[in-house]
């Protein structure tokens, strides 16, 4: 099975680069090898490698910057995905694509199901939703994994920012009224490998959207608290201790992009296909946090 991985340098891309060789021959392309917005480079990779499955981990993910870089966000997350989906469909091969909890408006009390109405509250969410719709419109062999709050050991993310801030400040204000679920690229990769194995074995999962996140839920404050606890127990020198993180509310921390207040994803549909249990977010996050902390040098 030949697997073309796009966006191989992102948080998820780097994890997939490590995980995918278990299930096939991988050509991993970062943005410099295949720019998703450059149709010629996409075509060249498809024609020369001739993959059975394209795994698209490339995306414009700068949520706040997307508010002013709307054209770029739509170009990568929607227009380029439409072109890719069309080319994949022409070749009769599979597309595995990733989307986000930010396609919901956050007004629901419970976790969102795949069938719930979408209504993004920011440009990033709008662009990712347009990408999903393009895949669905063009493709007959696709899986879209909607995931949330991706925090991995590679690239930049919330956990690394909190550790840096905690090493230079006595107190930190962290938002405590946005509810969601941190998800490791390792878990997303594990699910992707399962889905590819099913395709290989001729028992492909039903085409469509799947919500992918660990169990449980928390807030950004909850994630920061657990992270700093793990850091303290790992003897990392920080100015901020868990007792000195202050819970704040979204209204007191204005950002360019609005965020949904609830972006928990119901994963019942995915669980039916998996041969392993989705972990609780604290167990999933613990492994990531430990490896981030190991690499961390206090500033
Ligand atoms: N991060 C989150 O919290 C989060 C939450 C929910 C869903 N997701 C979704 O999960 C997926 C993976 O996200 P992630 O956290 O791994 O994102 P990431 O770390 O920002 O990685 C995205 C990668 O896409 C690459 N890229 C951007 N524009 C490109 C282009 N025109 N052509 C080719 N590559 C391009 C980036 O390249 P450079 O390295 O050169 O910039 C980067 O390596 C995305 O679909 C994202 O929307 C993410």
CATH class label of one domain: Alpha Beta
- Give the radius of gyration: 19 Å
Shape: globular
CATH architecture annotation name of one domain: 3-Layer(aba) Sandwich
Distance between the termini: 45 Å
Number of DSSP strand runs:
10
What's the rounded overall pLDDT mean?
Answer: 95
Contiguous uncertain segments of 5+ residues = none
Number of helices: 9
Largest sheet: 6 strands, parallel
N-to-C series of helices and strands: EHEHEHEHEHEEHEEHEHH
Helical/strand content category: alpha/beta
Bound molecules: NADP nicotinamide-adenine-dinucleotide phosphate
Strand order of the largest sheet: 2-1-3-4-5-8
Give a description of the structure.
This protein has 299 residues and is an alpha/beta fold. The chain has a domain of 202 residues: 3-Layer(aba) Sandwich (Rossmann fold). The chain is 39% helix and 15% strand. The protein has nine helices and ten strands. Helix 4 links the parallel strand 4 and strand 5. The model has no long low-confidence stretch (mean pLDDT 95). NADP nicotinamide-adenine-dinucleotide phosphate binds next to helix 1 and strand 4.
């Amino acid at each position: 099975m030949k697997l073309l991985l796009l966006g191989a340098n992102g948080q998820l891309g780097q994890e997939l680069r490590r995980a995918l060789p278990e299930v096939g021959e991988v050509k991993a392309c970062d943005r410099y090898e295949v720019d998703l917005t450059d149709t010629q480079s996409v075509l060249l990779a498809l024609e020369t490698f001739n993959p059975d499955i394209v795994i698209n981990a490339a995306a414009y993910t700068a949520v706040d910057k997307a508010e002013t870089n709307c054209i770029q966000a739509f170009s990568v997350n929607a227009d380029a995905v439409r072109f890719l989906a069309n080319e994949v469909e022409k070749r009769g091969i599979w597309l595995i694509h990733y989307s986000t909890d930010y396609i919901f408006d956050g007004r629901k009390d419970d976790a969102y199901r795949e069938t719930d109405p979408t209504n993004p509250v920011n440009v990033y969410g709008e662009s990712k939703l347009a990408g999903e719709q393009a895949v669905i419109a063009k493709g007959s062999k696709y899986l879209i994994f909607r995931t949330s709050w991706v925090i991995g050991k590679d690239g930049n993310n919330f956990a690394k920012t909190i550790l840096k801030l905690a090493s230079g400040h006595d107190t930190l204000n962290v938002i405590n009224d946005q509810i969601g679920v941190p998800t490791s690229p390792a878990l997303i990769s594990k699910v992707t490998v399962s889905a590819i194995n099913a395709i290989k074995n001729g028992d492909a999962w039903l085409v469509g959207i799947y919500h992918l996140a660990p169990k449980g839920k928390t807030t950004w404050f909850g994630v920061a608290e657990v992270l700093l606890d793990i850091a303290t127990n790992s003897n990392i020198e920080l100015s901020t201790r868990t007792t000195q993180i202050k819970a704040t509310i979204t209204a007191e921390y204005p950002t360019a992009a609005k965020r949904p207040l609830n972006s928990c994803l119901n994963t019942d549909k995915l669980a039916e296909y998996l041969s392993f249990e989705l972990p609780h977010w604290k167990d999933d996050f613990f492994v990531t946090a430990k490896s981030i902390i190991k690499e961390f040098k206090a500033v």
